[in-house]
Design a protein that fits this description.
CATH architecture of the largest domain in chain B: Up-down Bundle
Oligomer: heterodimer
Number of helices of chain B: 15
CATH class of the largest domain in chain B: Mainly Alpha
Order of helices and strands of chain A: HHEHEHEEHEHHEHHH
Number of strands of chain B: 11
CATH superfamily of the largest domain in chain B: Multidrug efflux transporter AcrB transmembrane domain
CATH class of the largest domain in chain A: Mainly Alpha
Shape of chain B: elongated
CATH architecture of the largest domain in chain A: Up-down Bundle
Largest interface: A-B, 90 and 88 residues
Strand order of the largest sheet of chain B: 2-3-1-11
Largest sheet of chain B: 4 strands, antiparallel
Distance between the termini of chain A: 15 Å
Helix content of chain A: 55-70%
Strand content of chain A: 5-15%
Helix content of chain B: 55-70%
CATH topology of the largest domain in chain B: Multidrug efflux transporter AcrB transmembrane fold
Strand order of the largest sheet of chain A: 3-4-2-5
């Protein structure tokens, strides 16, 4: 298999005649490589998920998270000493940023405990302002877990039904597998990059799912349209390839505009939503990839296995 | 209108005649013509885009005056078109109207939105209390309503405007106080479940916090002294009547968690259940503090804090500024991208994005939605989908133009095809938003609502506004060269070549 320039092509999507197009590189023919590329991203993610799990925020684990801004530079040993005085667990996490901003994550504190911790820090270390103080009880976090899983499953089922009605079942199945791919990529990379998983991440996952289906539908819509005017003897893989090429500019441009917004928010936005935005960024890119390189080839494979493709060369 | 139709017919005839003879400028274009046309477009027939030639029209059209396409400065098609000034005028008026609306509403909208900031943006506290049943104090709808009323009173005493206090799941209470200066103190006061007892001089407990309905600080109208008014429930009132009657001249003290709060002397029997404590308060603030503590001790059921988020005011302000700043940068990039890539339709896209943003802001104010960080994120994501609607339409338009259709029919076909796609996509996003709303926690609900409104608005603007403007643009014949619709030069050159 070799890559070469398609000299007969004037524009993307405006490939030459049937005979000429046959010589050109066909995305569907190369599908094995696209699947492998996906696996190359997903498998390390799965390994990371299996070995070190995810960076679950207190939304999922329960606990307290305090953000404290000191008026002078502070060290984590100083904070640790105060925490030990307060009989707080030694495995509490302390994260410093900008020298005087401290993030303390520990077990769920009662209001009295967090008040006394803050006043002790004030006494021993110096003037401070409590930027935020979050606490989540274990009851709530287990509910969140359950609701998150339920939300994703129900959204999947509804989208499957909708696409099956508007298109056909095999399109729906391919689209859902593509979403699943995007979620695996996002979750796996979130584990590798140790992004914080909180309740907003559930929103990110569902947004990614919606966005991925969005992309997939645009291509399927074109395949459906082209199938209607399919020429006799035209192989299905070429039709799919052609459909992808026709919608390619749109796919790229849309991803570009979304990326502009996301990158702006990641680079210049507040720290609080950065991990959320990075997850969206990963998911959006994966969604664009999967709709072109996974969903459409998968649909072709489904059709081929059912003997409806007439694609053998 | 009739004349226009006629002209178009003439054009079609012309196309039929000229097409077979028209020299194909590129071998590739020949390929394009030979291949099956999935757009059900006619074979590449009309090299002349735009509407029919007008008999007397010799002027160069606006927008066409400045450029020289690959077809040369004397492209015949430019000379054969007349601008429809009525449509062009309407177009201009709409653009002016939008500009005026933006100029005059931007500030009021921004200041209105600032009033409904979520607590992540203006600082504040969100707490979820869970009621815990204890002997004699079961958790049911009565006790939960009483608990809620109690918390409302405590929050009022803190002087918070527009608090959210609602019962969730039957046994939880969500309290959200935005813009509060000392969130930690608020949480302490609201969730305090001090055990309150009323004791006689001999130490006998006569009443508990459960019997007290409310306590309120006030200024006595005749003496002008601050005082605290107490109201007991009906059972409490009966006991209080007996106890006060039996203890005139003696003290009945109030203990919170076995600590003496106050020990007023009974002046007279109080049969009504409405009592006043006065004399000991130096200021109204003093009386208010006592009232607050009395209310604090009067929770009908025990509560524990299961979730708490407090955000200091500076962090909130910082987040708001940063995300607005970042959002603006993103928006400008998108605007520029659309402008440079799609050119004239890019201008239409930018206009429709402005209209989209205006409608979103209007809806936001209408439903009194609170602006949160997640909300801003959802807005930007749905903006991306709104841009996608435009991209879908223009890409389709370009394809139809490349297939050799006239501007008018390209526009009609482009919209028809793109809209089904947009509809299918958006229905799916709406499904996602609904599921999120149904299962999400309160901050995710905000995200879902914004996403829902956003997707809906983008669908609406694509179908109405973008279509209207593009329609006017096409029928005004202001811009005819496909180059200005983003069709690349090679093809534009092919299309711009004279037909004969």
């Amino acid at each position: 298999m070799v890559w070469r320039e398609n000299k007969n092509c004037c524009r993307l999507g405006e490939t030459g005649s049937l005979r000429e197009r046959r010589k050109a590189v066909n995305l569907i023919e190369l599908r094995k490589y696209w699947y492998i590329l996906s696996l190359l991203v997903i498998i390390p993610g799965l390994i990371s998920l299996g070995t070190r799990h995810m960076n679950f925020g207190i939304d999922f684990t329960g606990g307290s998270l305090l953000e404290i801004q000191f008026s002078q530079p502070v060290t984590d040993t100083a904070i640790q000493a105060v925490m030990a005085d307060q009989k707080l667990p030694s495995d509490s996490e302390i994260q410093l940023s900008n020298g005087n901003m401290a993030m303390i994550r520990t077990r769920a504190l009662t209001q009295d405990e967090s008040n006394s911790l803050v006043s002790a820090l004030q006494q021993k270390i110096g003037p401070l302002s409590l930027q935020s103080d979050n606490k989540v009880d274990a009851v709530v976090s287990s509910e969140l877990m359950r609701n998150a899983a339920l939300a994703v499953l129900i959204a999947f089922a509804l989208m499957l039904v909708y696409i099956a009605i508007r298109f056909e079942f095999w399109f729906a199945l391919a689209a859902i597998i593509a979403i699943f791919h995007d979620i695996l990529v996002t979750v796996g990379l979130a584990s590798i990059f140790w992004l914080q998983i909180d309740s907003a991440s559930v929103a990110a996952i569902l947004t990614i799912a919606a966005y991925s289906v969005h992309d997939t539908i645009v291509i399927f819509d074109r395949i459906r349209e082209n199938v209607k005017v399919r020429k006799k003897g035209e192989p299905l893989d070429e039709l799919i390839h052609y459909s992808i090429m026709q919608t390619l500019t749109r796919s790229i441009n849309t991803v570009m505009t979304v990326l502009f917004c996301l990158l702006a928010l990641i680079l210049f936005g507040g720290v609080t939503i950065r991990d959320f935005m990075i997850m969206l960024l990963i998911g959006v890119i994966s969604g664009a990839y999967s709709s072109i390189f996974n969903a459409s080839p998968l649909w072709f494979d489904f059709k081929r296995l059912r003997g409806e493709s007439a694609a053998t060369r | 209108m009739a004349g226009k139709k006629q002209r178009r017919n003439t054009n079609k005839q012309q196309q039929k005649q000229t097409a077979p003879e028209s020299p194909q400028p590129e071998p590739t274009a020949a390929g394009a013509a030979n291949q099956q046309s999935p757009n059900t477009a006619p074979r590449r027939a009309a090299p002349v885009p735009g509407d029919a030639p007008a008999p007397g029209g010799t002027r160069t059209v606006g927008g066409g005056a400045g450029f020289s396409g690959p077809g040369g400065p004397n492209r015949p098609q430019a000379r054969r078109q007349t601008t429809n000034w009525a449509d062009a005028g309407i177009l201009g008026l709409i653009v002016l109207a939008i500009a005026a609306i933006v100029i005059f509403t931007a500030k009021p909208i921004a200041s209105e939105l600032q009033k409904h900031l979520g607590l992540d943006l203006q600082g504040g506290v969100s707490v979820i209390y869970q009621a815990v049943p204890s002997p004699g104090a079961p958790v049911n709808s009565d006790s939960m309503n009483a608990l809620r009323n109690n918390m409302v009173r405590r929050v009022d005493a803190l002087g918070v405007t527009e608090p959210t206090i609602q019962i969730e799941n039957g046994n939880r209470i969500l309290v959200e106080l935005a813009g509060i200066k000392d969130p930690e103190q608020a949480v302490s006061v609201i969730g305090q479940t001090a055990h309150m007892e009323f004791k006689t001089e001999d130490g006998k407990v006569v009443l508990t916090g459960a019997d007290l309905k409310s306590a309120q600080a006030q200024i006595n109208t005749s003496t002008s002294q601050p005082e605290v008014a107490l109201t007991f429930d009906s059972a409490g009132a009966k006991i209080f009547a007996q106890v006060t009657a039996a203890n005139v001249g003696k003290t009945i003290s109030i203990y919170l968690d076995n600590q003496l709060l106050t020990n007023p002397v009974v002046q007279e029997a109080i049969p009504s259940g409405n009592a006043v404590i006065n004399g000991g308060f130096k200021t109204l603030q003093d009386a208010q503090n006592t009232a607050l503590q009395l209310n604090a001790g009067a929770l009908p059921v025990q509560v524990t804090t299961i979730e708490k988020t407090t955000v200091g005011p500076t962090l909130g302000q910082d987040s708001l500024n940063r995300s607005l700043h970042a959002g603006m940068i993103g928006l400008v990039l998108v605007f520029l991208f659309m402008l440079f890539y799609y050119r004239v339709p890019g201008v239409v896209a930018d206009l429709s994005l402005i209209v989209y943003a205006l409608i979103m802001a209007g809806l936001y104010l209408l439903v009194h939605a609170t602006l949160t960080l997640e909300g801003i994120a959802a807005f930007i994501i749905s903006l991306g989908m709104a841009v996608d609607a435009n991209i879908l339409i223009y890409e389709r338009l370009k394809e139809e133009l490349r297939a050799g259709k006239t501007l008018r029919s390209s526009f009609d076909a482009g919209f028809r095809h793109a809209l089904t796609t947009i509809l299918d996509c958006n229905v799916n996003s709406l499904i996602g938003a609904c599921v999120l709303y149904y299962f999400g926690s309160s901050d995710i609900k905000g995200f879902a609502v914004t996403l829902f409104i956003g997707v809906f608005t983008s669908l609406f603007t694509a179908v109405t506004f973008t279509r209207l403007i593009m329609n006017l643009l096409v029928s005004s014949r202001l811009v005819l060269n496909p180059k200005w619709y983003g069709v690349r030069t090679k093809i534009a050159a092919a299309l711009a070549k004279p037909a004969v």
